[in-house]
Design a protein that fits this description.
Elements lengths: L1 H7 L1 H72 L8 H14 L6 E5 L5 E5 L13 H9 L3 E2 L3 E4 L2 E14 L2 E13 H8 L10 E5 L5 E3 L23 H9 L4 E7 L2 E12 L2 E10 H12 L7 H40 L3 E5 L5 E4 L1 H7 L11 H6 L9 H8 L3 E7 L7 E9 L10 E7 L1 H46 L5 H28 L6 E4 L1 H14 L7 E6 L7 E4 H18 L4 E12 L3 E10 L27 H11 L3 E6 L4 E8 L3
Parallel strand pairs: 18-20
Antiparallel strand pairs: 1-2, 1-6, 3-5, 4-5, 5-6, 7-8, 7-11, 9-10, 10-11, 12-13, 12-16, 14-15, 15-16, 17-19, 20-21, 21-23, 22-23
Helix pairs in contact: 12-13, 14-15, 15-16
Length: 688
């Protein structure tokens, strides 16, 4: 009955439709009002979030640069305390500098050492600055006066090339006083800082970062390259500039915050943060054009103006559902991806690693650890770690994983493992939780570093140090024996010249004189080998030395006409930075050995070459080969040892001195048997 009544009463139906329309219009208008207020509120929230992100990026960049310099200063402090840095062995110092250079991942241009007079004694990579004075450099003066680590100002080396020098004093105690004994320093390219900390990020399409030192000089600006090296005061009166002076004034005070300025008629928002480099406070600024921020805001909220109330509700509900599902799917896939990536990293690790489940069982073990233990992965899965590694039925006492499970922090311990494979070893154990969830114990990543090789190396180092001491003692004894031998030689010569003895006495005096001379020669050669002189490097043309020595050899009677000396010299061989006298000794000893290897007649070939090694370093090559009888393979391992010889009258020091001279030049020597005869190949670094 009521249903029929409503159908019949069209007026009431129209009223109902009218009120429904009014209610719908009211809802639409109210929704638009709420949407506008919501948009205004969201705009402020997004703008605040953008500003916070900008400040966070500036702070992160400043912290990264500050830590970058702290790491280099820490390395320099370690360098200054190395015993061989203060010693006189140049090769050890060069090797130490090379190790620190490789450790820095080539972020440093040069590691070098200056003595107390400001003379550069060592530098890596090699550079022509070695041997020059830097006494007048500001960083040398500051380091010497303060006896503390020092960071220089930004130094302009070339037109658009800037560097920073970090130095640390080498100190020694003399009469209970601290004495300056030189410094170790590192040079860092400003271009490297720009590449590492400024070029990778883009906060917006045209956003960028720049850095200013405590004097107000712009040191890094990847966009406005003309700013670099200029004081910020010179830009205040630039056309289209406004607010830059107020911004930089706050930056010079070491403040952190936000500011606006105009440059080239472009309004920009800048977040700035201080950083400490040495004793100076610099500042980093991250800039974004304000117009881009406005465009970003407009693009974010432009569609919401047209939405009706029920459309907004649908979008919110649908968006919430989509976000929930997307987030769920994303987290699931990211967990799978992270696990696969983690497994890939584990398998690629050269050190041992495994994953331990909360019940102490081994869930995963990487190939490096399996290889070192000599076991199969299938035989250890789901076995308790204390059973496998320690042979125990219960968990270990003072296990680092207990700290990881109990407190959620990494754990560390030194352990003596007695695994099921039966071979015990000492190891460092580092445990890290694989999840931040605290409701249940997480899986633990366990890094195991086998210390067997390290312990062996320490033992070898100790043995080497003992042998070095024995060598020093032997050299001292040989030096003390030399003077009495010279006296014996002189006395025997006087006996030979005296007429007051018979033939038997003369024969005995001749034996004494001959044997004493032989012993004196042996001691002289031993001292030359035991205490090699410092190289006197000059620009040397290897071809000229080869020609000279081969010409002398051809004119000697002991070579004879039956031995032919041939040369094959590279026509474009460059000069090398080598010791001419030591190099002549190398060539002459090899040519003499080649002569002794030829019994009747034969050929001696001397060859020079040069080439690039892996496109990085140039080397020169010296080859001496002969058509003689060759070398017994059983004797090859002792060929370069002192006093090893197959000749009746030889001392066995020739090849030992050759190898020593080659190694002093940081070169290498090898020999081989071929169809022609015996070939000696020497590779020397060019270093020109």
């Amino acid at each position: 009955m009521k249903k029929k009544y409503y159908y019949k009463d069209f007026t009431k139906i129209h009223l109902i439709i009218f009120f429904i329309g009014l209610f719908t219009l009211f809802i639409v208008i109210e929704t638009l009002i709420l949407s506008s207020e919501y948009r205004s509120s969201m705009t402020n929230d997004v703008l605040e979030q953008f500003n916070n992100q900008q400040i966070h990026l500036a702070r992160q960049t400043a912290n990264g640069i500050e830590k970058f310099f702290e790491d280099i200063l820490r390395d320099l402090t370690l360098l200054s305390q190395y015993p061989n840095i203060t010693g006189q062995n140049q090769n050890d110092i060069d090797l130490t500098l090379e190790q620190f250079y490789k450790k820095s991942n080539h972020d440093v241009i040069h590691f070098y050492k200056l003595d107390a007079n400001g003379i550069m004694t060592n530098i890596y990579p090699k550079n022509v600055a070695r041997g020059k004075t830097f006494l007048f450099r500001n960083y040398f003066i500051q380091t010497k006066e303060s006896l503390k680590p020092h960071v220089s100002k930004f130094i302009k080396v070339q037109a658009d090339y800037w560097t920073i020098v970090l130095s640390c004093p080498i100190l020694r105690i003399e009469n209970k006083k601290t004495v300056f004994d030189g410094l170790v320093a590192a040079t860092v390219s400003v271009d490297k800082l720009r590449t590492l900390f400024f070029e990778p990020f883009r906060l917006s399409a045209n956003g960028y970062g720049w850095m200013m030192d405590d004097d107000g000089t712009v040191t890094i600006n990847p966009i406005e390259m003309g700013w670099t090296g200029k004081n910020i005061n010179a830009l205040f009166d630039h056309p289209g500039e406004k607010g830059l002076e107020a911004l930089t004034s706050r930056m010079k005070k070491g403040e952190e915050g936000l500011g606006n300025y105009t440059y080239h008629f472009i309004d920009k928002s800048a977040a700035f943060s201080p950083l400490k480099i040495g004793q100076r406070v610099c500042s980093v600024a991250i800039c974004t054009p304000i117009e881009e921020i406005k465009q970003f805001m407009q693009k974010t909220f432009i569609k919401e103006k047209k939405l009706l109330a029920f459309v907004i509700l649908v979008i919110i509900i649908a968006g919430g559902c989509v976000m929930f599902l997307t987030r769920h799917i994303y987290l699931s896939r990211m967990e799978e991806h992270s696990w696969d990536k983690l497994m890939g990293i584990f398998k690629a690790m050269s050190s041992g690693a495994c994953i331990i489940s909360p019940d102490h069982t081994i869930a995963f073990i990487n190939p490096a650890l399996m290889k070192s233990l000599g076991i199969d992965e299938n035989k250890i899965m789901n076995i308790p770690c204390h059973t496998f590694f320690m042979g125990q039925d219960k968990p270990c006492k003072e296990c680092p994983m207990e700290d990881t499970w109990g407190q959620g922090i990494p754990g560390y311990a030194l352990k003596r493992f007695t695994p099921v494979s039966g071979q015990a070893f000492s190891a460092e154990v580092l445990t890290i939780p694989l999840s931040e969830t605290h409701e249940t114990p997480p899986h633990v990543f366990c890094y195991i570093k086998n210390l067997t090789e390290e312990i062996t190396l320490k033992r070898k180092l100790t043995q080497s140090q003992k042998m070095a001491v024995i060598g020093e003692l032997a050299a001292g004894i040989a030096h003390e024996m030399r003077n009495p031998l010279l006296s014996i030689c002189s006395a025997s010569e006087m006996l030979l010249d005296s007429p007051n003895h018979d033939s038997e006495e003369a024969t005995l005096a001749q034996v004494i004189h001959t044997e004493a001379r032989t012993l004196e020669t042996v001691i002289r050669e031993f001292l030359l080998y035991a205490r090699p002189p410092v190289l006197n490097r000059t620009h040397t043309q290897l071809n000229d030395l080869v020609k000279k020595i081969c010409k002398q050899a051809k004119s000697r009677n002991d070579f004879g006409s039956s031995i032919i000396i041939e040369t094959s010299l590279a026509h474009d061989l460059p000069k090398a930075y080598l010791d001419k006298n030591r190099l002549s000794q190398i060539i002459w000893n090899l040519v003499q050995n080649a002569r002794d290897a030829i019994e009747d007649q034969g050929i001696i070939k001397v060859i020079t070459e040069w080439k690039n090694t892996k496109g990085i370093r140039k080397n020169i090559i010296l080859i001496v080969e002969d058509s003689g009888k060759g070398i017994d393979p059983e004797m090859s391992k002792d060929l370069f040892k002192p006093f090893f010889t197959t000749k009746e009258h030889g001392l066995g020091m020739g090849l030992a001195l050759v190898k020593q001279a080659v190694e002093l030049h940081q070169g290498s020597i090898k020999f081989e048997q071929n169809s022609f005869g015996t070939r000696f190949t020497i590779v020397l670094p060019l270093m020109s």
